[in-house]
Amino acid sequence: NTSVTSLNISYNAIGDDGAELVAELLRAGVPPLARLTMNDCGIGGRGAKAIADALIGTKSLQTLELMNNSIDSSGGEALLEMLGSNRSLRQLSTSFNDIPDELQAKIEKRLMMR
């Protein structure tokens, strides 16, 4: 269904395996989501990296919420790197994860520079 533009799967314990499946959907671009909300899903660094890698070539997603997961510095670094090449993403929420404060500040700064 290409009319779906927003997907909220928050509060489902999908973990890294589920995040990797979501990344496959993002890579395929069907449906072309504008907003993806995955708060409190048990996503760690591996899942965040999969999502970040999928978003490098994605042009439709504007908002990504990943709050209250278990994303660590490796996932945070992948998200920061993705922001260097993805131009469509305007909002990225990563509060309440295990991303170090300094790295979190870099992510927020890169978003503000858009």
Description of the structure:
The protein has 114 residues and is of the alpha/beta class. It contains four helices and four strands; from the N terminus they run E-H-E-H-E-H-E-H. The protein has helices at residues 15-28, 45-55, 73-83, 101-112, and strands at 6-8, 35-37, 63-65, 91-93. A four-stranded parallel β-sheet has the order 1-2-3-4. Helix 2 (45-55) links the parallel strand 2 (35-37) and strand 3. The model has no long low-confidence stretch (mean pLDDT 95).
Give the structure's gist in a few sentences.
With 114 residues, the protein is an alpha/beta fold.
Distance between the termini: 30 Å
Total number of β-strand segments? Answer: 4
Shape: globular
Percent helix, as a range, is 40-55%
What is the subunit organization of this protein? single chain
Number of helices: 4
Strand portion: 5-15%
What is Rg? 13 Å
Strand order of the largest sheet: 1-2-3-4
Largest sheet: 4 strands, parallel
Write the H/E string, N to C.
Answer: EHEHEHEH
Contiguous runs where pLDDT drops below 50 for at least 5 residues: none
Task: Write a concise keyword list for the protein shown above.
globular, four-stranded parallel sheet, 42% helix, 4 strands, alpha/beta, 114 residues, single chain
Describe the secondary structure blueprint for this structure.
Elements: E1 6-8, H1 15-28, E2 35-37, H2 45-55, E3 63-65, H3 73-83, E4 91-93, H4 101-112
Parallel strand pairs: 1-2, 2-3, 3-4
Helix pairs in contact: 1-2, 2-3, 3-4
